[in-house]
Specification:
Elements: E1 2-3, E2 8-12, H1 18-28, H2 33-38, H3 42-63, E3 65-69, E4 74-81, H4 92-100, H5 104-116, E5 123-131, H6 140-154, E6 159-163, H7 166-174, E7 178-179, E8 183-184, E9 191-197
Helix pairs in contact: 1-3, 3-4, 4-5
Keywords: Transferase
Organism: Micromonospora arida
Protein name: GNAT family N-acetyltransferase
Length: about 220
């Protein structure tokens, strides 16, 4: 489907797109507070990130839904999260360690923190969205997400993601997300903003959904 306002054509990704999309993910996430925390050495980071995002993209193609653009300039990895949430694969820790080597403990810690604070309500989870750095600030990422949002709106399904910086946080607010209580990663880690896009047909604004660590507060 082509977004008329931006001219961006969105389609579902296939295995044939893997190499191009790994590069987009690795380059788009290369800089930033989370990257600096996960792999402080930039030289190591480039190698580790390519292996890590090869694993992440493969998992998304097998277990989730992956959207891309006609020119492979952007990618979004979504996971339907029914209630109760699915349990992780027993093979994932070993695969993560093989991909990230000595940095595996921080990658595993990041996964654990994200999962602990994950909403318990049914939703679609945006695990990753990335745009080729040379093509950012052209509305490509927004068009890619809006494509999936329209599908969610048709079935009255919320969406959830984590924003790792204020710039991205503001983009998601413009796309209909609300910020919830933030997370601060351990060992001098950065702040992560939890973002929730509620059901579009709700009679009134919803409170931020509860997670395992953050009990639901009564409405006032």
């Amino acid at each position: 489907m082509t977004d008329i306002s931006t001219g961006v054509t969105v389609r579902q990704a296939t295995r044939g797109d893997t190499q191009g999309l790994i590069s987009v993910l690795a380059e788009a996430f290369f800089d930033g507070p989370v990257a600096d925390w996960l792999v402080p050495d930039p030289n190591d980071r480039r190698t580790v990130y390519r292996r890590y995002f090869e694993l992440a993209l493969s998992h998304g193609l097998d277990n989730g839904h992956v959207d891309t653009t006609a020119d492979l300039s952007a990618v979004a990895i979504w996971y339907p999260r029914p209630e109760p949430s699915p349990k992780g694969s027993l093979e994932h820790p070993a695969a993560l360690e093989a991909a990230t080597g000595v940095y595996a403990p921080k990658f595993a810690l990041l996964d654990a923190v994200f999962e602990a604070y994950h909403p318990g309500e049914p939703h679609h989870y945006l695990a990753y969205v990335a745009v080729n750095p040379e093509q950012q600030n052209r509305g490509i990422g927004a068009a890619l997400l809006s494509h999936h949002h329209r599908q969610l709106d048709a079935i009255d399904m919320p969406a959830y993601l984590e924003a790792s910086n204020l710039r991205n946080r503001e983009l998601y607010v413009r796309l209909g997300y609300r910020a919830g209580p933030p997370m601060i990663l351990p060992t001098t880690g950065p702040t992560i903003w939890r973002m929730w896009r509620g059901q579009p047909n709700a009679a009134r604004p919803e409170g931020f959904p509860a997670s395992g660590l953050l009990p639901r507060r009564s409405a006032r």
